[in-house]
Amino acid sequence: MTAFELAVQDAAGLAVAARVRPDRIELCAALSTGGVTPSPALTEAAVATGVPVHVLVRPREGGFDYDDADRELIVADARHAAGLGVAGVVIGGLAGGAVDAELVRRVRGTVGDLEVTFHRAFDMLGDLAGALDELAGLGVTRVLTSGGASRAAEAAPMLRRLAERAGDRIQVMAGGGVTSANAGELAATGVAALHASAKREVVEHLAVALGSAAPAGPARYATVDEAEALAIRDVLAGGAGA
Predict the structure, then answer these.
(1) Which domains does the chain have, with CATH numbers?
(2) How much is the pTM?
(3) Please, which residues have CB within 8 angstroms of residue 219's CB and are 6 or more apart in sequence?
(4) Does 104 have pLDDT greater than 90?
(5) Do 201 and 220 meet the contact criterion of CB atoms below 8 Å apart?
(6) Which ranges in 56-196 belong to alpha helices (H)?
């Protein structure tokens, strides 16, 4: 059966995950930016749900070409997350248009037996098949990918090719615009897992501006929609996919 990874960024989402029981949680903060490293307290709360937690380790928004200071933060945050009882870490880094293999090796060596997922920095690479082979050789557990497109549903043929190429060496997890409406189609590509945020929008009102990204007036943020998360889980439990 295709596994279900639920992206969560807040305490309300953790409460939903505790009820829905996805196969694992990807925990992050600032999901609207693609996600950054969550706080230790949020990580501890996630672990307390009893759902396996995979912590996103991303030191800033933007691209994935990191300098030495960024790399040191990634390794340190991965080490700290490992001490909080998580099941895995989620990382990514590029160097000269290729996988930052040295960063992957350092994190892999830091977190011991924990699983390591390479996130959608993978989709920025020109040779996805070659990068998949390289990451398998580096001991990465799985790759999160939209098949090189903005949305996974636009790249089903590529996802199928990657899943076939991966074999038993590494898992391919499809992410990017995954919903209950397309989960069955994506699972049918043979990927090992689907990654979804199953989000709904919450609107609040800000009396004053809190920065250029948050002007005064209506402010919106996303949290997990329980009905949508349940719907995705149920589609996958129904036997769609390989």
Answers:
(1) 3-237 (3.20.20.380)
(2) 0.91
(3) 203, 204, 205, 206
(4) yes
(5) yes
(6) 68-82, 101-110, 128-137, 156-166, 183-187
